[in-house]
Amino acid sequence: MFKLITMSVIGWALLSGVISRAQATNATAPAIDVYDGFEAAGLSKVWDTSRFVPGAVQMQTNIFHTGRGAAKITILPRDTYEAGINGSRDSERDELMEAKKLTSKENAAYEYSFSMFIPTNFPIVPTRLVIAQWKQNCPAGGNCSDDSPVLVIRYVSGELKITHQIGPHQTTLYETKEELRNQWLDFKFQIRFSTNENGRIKAWLGSKQVVDYLGVNAYPENPTTGYTHPSRFYFKMGLYRDLMPEPMTIYIDEYRKKELPGNAL
Fold it and tell me: What pLDDT, in 10s, does the model give residues 99-154?
């Protein structure tokens, strides 16, 4: 199931003379409210398909959180291979990336929720692995293309971490070494990306709030960094890792993203 709420009703009313332009400007309906329960036979239009190879993402009905199906993502060696630049390591990935029209705006508040299932036989290895990430968009030709994501969920050596980075050093906002395989992990994030102190990151794992961060959470925007103002931020989830010979599989269900009122955070 896929739902997208837009301003089309307001646009029709404006053109029909039902409401004034001022009333349309003051409308408070959220610009983004999308949901994907991964119930259909194919992938919904919520997702861009450029970050995974054909066959890596499958809709299946054996393991699911709610409803009757979930997405299964399996990464094999050299899937969507990217050579490292500026000394970074080579990588491979199979990820769902949100469609371009759904990217987040700087200084706007959003809530993301999604569920992930890590199978019992999932390899516990020290290889760098990212299962969800938010990246600041780097314009074509910018010198920021290899910058780390601003917000990441990592699963390495059996340890889950939520990390934040807007410079050379990474900050851990939450970590746990609890056994997380063979269970559904319900994540919720409330985020406002900003280059000043009103940036916000709040996160929950299940019913427990695990992150409450207030402060700068975006890379500076200037010719030196390569980012333009205002920035856009896009979300990806799945499997992104350093090269390794073993396959990995993860399941994803119950994704939702909605824009929050401006003062929500």
Answer: 999 999 999 999 999 999 999 999 999 999 999 999 999 998 788 988 999 999 99
Distance CA 158, CA 125 (A): 7
All CATH 2.60.120.200 domain ranges of the chain, comma separated, are: 38-259
CB-count exposure of residue 21 (10 Å: 0-12, 13-18, 19+):
exposed
CATH topology classification for 38-259: Jelly Rolls (2.60.120)
To the nearest 5 percent, what fractions of the chain are helix, strand and coil? 5, 40, 50
What are residue 141's phi and psi, to 5 degrees? 85, 0
CB neighbourhood size of 167 (10 A): 12
Beta bridge partners of 230: none
Strand, helix or coil for residue 53 = coil
* pTM given for the model: 0.88
Residue pointed to by tokens 């939450």: 174
Please give the Cα distance from 35 to 48 (Å, whole number).
Answer: 15
Rg over CA atoms, the chain = 19
- Using omega within 30 degrees of 0 as the cis cutoff, is the peptide bond preceding 30 cis? no
> In b/e form, how buried is each residue of 240-260, taking b as 16+ CB within 10 angstroms?
bbbebeeebbbbbbbbbbbbb
